[in-house]
Amino acid sequence: MSDISEWSVKEAENTHLDELTLSGEGGLYVNKIMCAVKGDADSLDDVGFRGTLKQLEGGVDYNEIKNTGFYSVGYSASNANGPHKSASILIVFQFSSTALLQICKAINERTIYFRHLNSTTWTAWQYIITDNNIGDGISESNKKISVPEYSGATEGAAGTAGLVPPATSAQRTYFLNGAGEWVDLLTLIGS
């Protein structure tokens, strides 16, 4: 872990975590966590949550990591209840004995996972959607995810993936051709 000079998460949509910076020489140390209320940049404040990364090796059960802190979870095929078996950084915020938040990022991938403990039930691991998670047919612009409209093929160019324009009730016997146009099937076969 000593080769990590900086790891950051910034502007994580739909979370209160706006910035997290970890750095280290010979060991990872949490330098800063900045939080904002519902993404309001004016409320951005250092929450004073600092500490040394705790090393956890072999056969870690994520359900048992409940104390507030920063953890380095080593790879193990016997790791249980985590989003993956990979070596990870885990951040735990304990609000009470029955309410906590875990945030996990594998060292070798870009996806950031999170889940909550509510009373005695863990939620399923979910991930924060970033530009690294967006595939074909989906785009991101100005921090908003959208699906473009389908564009039909032309003589000179292939079509593009996207939402198909909706048919009207009068077009119930139509089909969408490769050019992206609704065509009446009954007209084609001579009803």
Please explain how this structure is put together.
The protein has 191 residues and is mainly β. The chain is 3% helix and 38% strand. The chain contains 1 helix and 16 strands. Strands 6, 7, 8, 9, 10, 11 and 12 form a 7-stranded mixed beta sheet that branches. Strands 1, 2, 3, 4 and 5 form a 5-stranded antiparallel beta sheet that branches. Strand 8 and strand 9 form a beta hairpin. The longest helix is centred in the last third of the chain and has 5 residues. It is elongated, with a radius of gyration of 24 Å.
Summarize the structure.
The chain is mainly beta and 191 residues long. Helices cover 3% and strands 38% of the residues.
Rg over C-alpha atoms, rounded to the nearest angstrom: 24 Å
Backbone structural class: mainly beta
Give the helix level as a range of percent. under 10%
| Topology, number of strands | 16
Unreliably modeled segments: 1-20, 22-32, 35-40, 42-48
Distance between the termini: 71 Å
Query: Quick check: average pLDDT?
Result: 74
Strand content: 35-45%
Please give the domain count. 2
Reported for the largest beta sheet, the result is:
7 strands, mixed
What is the string of SSEs from the N terminus onward? Answer: EEEEEEEEEEEEEEEEH
Shape: elongated
Number of distinct helices? 1
